[in-house]
Amino acid sequence: MLVTGIAELVTCAGPDGATPVDDLAASAADRLGVVADAAVVVHDGRVAWVGPAAGAPPADRVVDVGGRAVVPGFVDSHSHLVYAGDRAAEFTARMAGTPYDGGGIGVSVAATRAASDDELRALLRTRVAEMRSLGTTTVEVKSGYGLTVDDEVRSLRLAREVTDETTFLGAHVVPPEARDDRDAYLDLVCGPMLEACAPYARWVDVFCEPASPHAFTEDEARRVLTAGARAGLGLRLHGNQLSAGPGVRLAVELGAASVDHCTYLTDADVEALVGAAGTTVATLLPGVEFSTRSPYPDARRLLDAGVDVALATDCNPGTCNTASMPFVVALAVREMRMTPAEALVAATVGGARALRRTDIGRIAVGARADLAVLEAPSFEHLAYRPGMPLARALDRSPDE
Ligand SMILES: [Zn+2]
Fold first, then answer.
1. Is 6 in contact with 17 (CB distance < 8 Å)?
2. Are the C-beta atoms of 87 and 95 separated by less than 8 Å?
């Protein structure tokens, strides 16, 4: 299949689809890989050729995108899509001044436990379809609204139906029934719950936030991640969202793939992330700060220091109920002073890195042919036209 009529192609892999975006020997422009009047050849679901349309090889099938821009499909490396119920009332109260402390998660836990498998599956599939309609082609999905062995297994089993990037988040909060015995709940999470969930999960995650009475301390988070690693899972961590806590330090020490939020960082945290470049990504979730009316993470400080940065939605019913990566890109540019190019790279290659994947997030020869088409002549419109329905995943199903 030949995709042509591309006014502007951004490969995030150089103009020939062969230069790694992290090849620092190449210029920033070369790494971004912007090609005017471009074409892409897709074969067996993979990118087979990238370059100027004038030089494209012949193909069985031609898809003309009509002068639009094409970018790599977004990699949303942080979401919580398996839940029932909504928390619009909590959002309204928060806008009127009620602070966020993580306690509302219990509301989603109750609604999720009460939902049937079919109800949860339908809700999950609708949310993934919404993401795809906004240009996202890979999504990580966490459990964490079940918080019993059966409900966590069920969440991950359903998540596995829509993505390989599934994350066990039994340590999201201490559930209401376990408030009086945190240790017993951690024994459950690190024991029978982990054992039952591991077959359906690639990753383990923990909400490490000593400032919240509902989340977990450094020692508790270390226990969860160490147990997860022993069970063969990769590590991720929610940290430094509400205060400059121990999350970043712990994630770097344990070699986690990503530490997510990074809103409150000390100089030592930033230094630790610089030292962990290539191993631990700082994933920023500015939709959360937007939806909780909180200060944004200092993306410039991280980028200028040389930290690997990703952008993701954190799509969840409490603190950020949006599935839109274009919205996140717009926030990153407007509110965190990232350039449109930095934001696009963080939303594609950055997310791929946070999932330790090299086959997604770039339009490179051999990579998955996950393309997003923009109703725009250039990728800058993602930030320039916030809130507009600009991006959609290119449907290449007839080719597969
Ligand atoms: Zn989250």
1. no
2. no
Q: What are phi and psi of 387, to 5 degrees?
A: 80, 0
Of 120, 125, 146, 3, whose CA–CA distance to 61 is shortest? 3
Report CA(238)–ligand 1 centroid distance (Å).
Answer: 7
Contact yes or no for 89/321 (Cβ under 8 A): no
Token reading at 19: 């230069």
> What's the mean pLDDT in 232-252?
97
The reply to whether the predicted model has a pTM over 0.90 is yes
Tokens for 267?
Answer: 């100089």
pLDDT digit string, tens, across residues 159-205: 999 999 999 999 999 998 999 999 999 999 999 999 999 999 999 99
Helix and strand counts by DSSP (H, E) for the chain: 16, 15
62-72 vs 371-374, strand pairing mode: antiparallel
Distance from Cα 306 to the centre of ligand 1, integer Å: 24
| DSSP run (H or E) holding 374 | strand 371-374
- CA-wise closest residue to 313 among 145, 172, 140: 140
Separation CA 10–CA 72 (nearest Å): 7
> Which of these ranges, 22-26, 71-75, 117-121, has the smallest mean pLDDT?
22-26
Q: Measure 5 CA to ligand 1 centroid, in angstroms.
A: 38
Tokens of 158: 């359903």
Give the integer Cα–Cα distance in Å for 61 and 59.
6
Q: Which residue has the tokens 């471009």?
A: 38
Cα 85 from chain centre: 22
What's the token pair of residue 292?
């909780």
- CA of 51 relative to ligand 1 center, distance in Å: 38
